[in-house]
Design goal:
Elements (H helix, E strand, L loop, with lengths): L1 H15 L6 H5 L5 E3 L15 E3 L13 H8 L5 E5 L11 H13 L3 E5 L12 E4 L4 H5 L4 E6 L3 H10 L3 E3 L6 H11 L2 E3 L7 H13 L1 H15 L5 H14 L15 H4 L2 H41 L1
Parallel strand pairs: 1-2, 3-4, 3-6, 4-5, 6-7, 7-8
Helix pairs in contact: 4-8, 6-9
EC number: 2.4.1.17
Keywords: Glycosyltransferase, Membrane, Transferase, Transmembrane, Transmembrane helix
Catalytic activity: glucuronate acceptor + UDP-alpha-D-glucuronate = acceptor beta-D-glucuronoside + UDP + H(+)
Length: 310
């Protein structure tokens, strides 16, 4: 952790000069924090006023797709399955037997498949599979022929699927992906799979379930409506609160009173110490009284023995 912070400090100094405060100092002087997540998705966490939700700000207006991709999507009579495990995972590094299992299942489907694949060649690739090292994901998902998005469960990918109204199959691999994919199940917008124990039958059944049950699409469209029903758009909210901070020379008036208290004060260790001292005093008194009573009992016992002997 310290090494990562040290590297971050070096990066800051290289970009903004040697006089820039350290990452630790900056983190203790945050006046306004923007979170790219919708409060509905994170269970309405209690946060101070200077923390502002701007979930979905990264979603851009719909742009025209590349011609070859547009043609592929338009000609998919039965629909398209989109498969991407994000940018942090190279799909080609997965176990070969798992890759071939994906290929076999996709070849059995009546759908065409778009697969984000980081190599030029996919072993066993069938005619209904199109591979690419990169896809314009946000725009692709909004094509009406996309039936399901098989994803690792990243937050931005999830946001883009919700905006597009495309149900999900989540295969979490790291970080917050398990949390996000569990939300698919909770909101009934998708299915969770475990890559360690994934079988060919389970994978195929999950795709058939999502594409065959219209409730998943209905639920994700309903969730999209709930998330979009806000007083301001994410961008408008970010702009307004940024200008508010600039107008007032910062946003110290919005910070929580406990923002910079010490860990000892935050955990109220002084109160814990008082409680421990009281307990220590009570135990000490009990121990002393016990010793006194024991001595009295022993003394009485010794006197009784002497009387019997005499």
């Amino acid at each position: 952790m310290r090494q990562a912070e040290y590297q971050a400090d070096l990066t800051l100094k290289s970009k903004f000069g040697s006089n820039v405060p350290s990452l630790h100092e900056l983190s203790n002087n945050i006046h306004m924090l923007f979170l790219n997540v919708n409060p509905i998705w994170v269970d309405n966490q209690p946060l101070p006023t200077n923390v502002v939700y701007i979930g979905g700000i990264h979603v851009t207006p719909l742009k025209e797709l590349p011609k070859d991709l547009q043609t592929f999507l338009d000609l998919a009579k039965n629909g398209v399955v989109y498969f991407s495990l994000g940018t942090n995972v190279k799909t080609s590094t997965l176990p070969p037997e798992l890759i071939q299992m994906f290929v076999r299942v996709f070849s059995q489907l009546p759908y065409d498949v778009l697969w984000k694949w980081d190599q030029d060649v996919l072993p066993g690739q069938t005619k209904n599979i199109m591979i690419s090292k990169w896809f314009p994901q946000s725009d692709l998902l909004r094509h009406p022929n996309v039936k399901v998005f098989i994803t690792q469960g990243g937050l931005q990918s999830t946001d883009e699927a919700i905006v597009a109204g495309v149900p999900l199959i989540g295969i979490p691999l790291m970080a917050d992906q398990w949390y996000n994919v569990q939300k698919y199940v909770r909101h009934q917008i998708g299915i969770q799979l475990d890559i360690k124990y994934l079988t060919e039958g389970e994978f195929k059944t999950s795709i058939e379930t999502i594409t065959g049950d219209k409730r998943y699409r209905e639920n994700i469209i309903r969730l999209r409506t709930l998330m979009a029903d806000q007083l301001q758009s994410p961008l408008e909210s970010a702009v307004w609160w940024t200008e508010h901070t600039l107008r007032h020379g910062g946003a110290a008036h919005l910070r929580a009173a406990g923002a910079n208290v010490s860990w000892a004060h935050y955990l109220e260790l002084e109160l814990a110490l008082i409680v421990l001292l009281i307990l220590f005093f009570i135990l000490t008194v009990i121990l002393i009284l016990s010793c006194m009573i024991w001595k009295i009992i022993i003394r009485k016992f010794q006197i009784d023995i002497k009387r019997k002997v005499t």
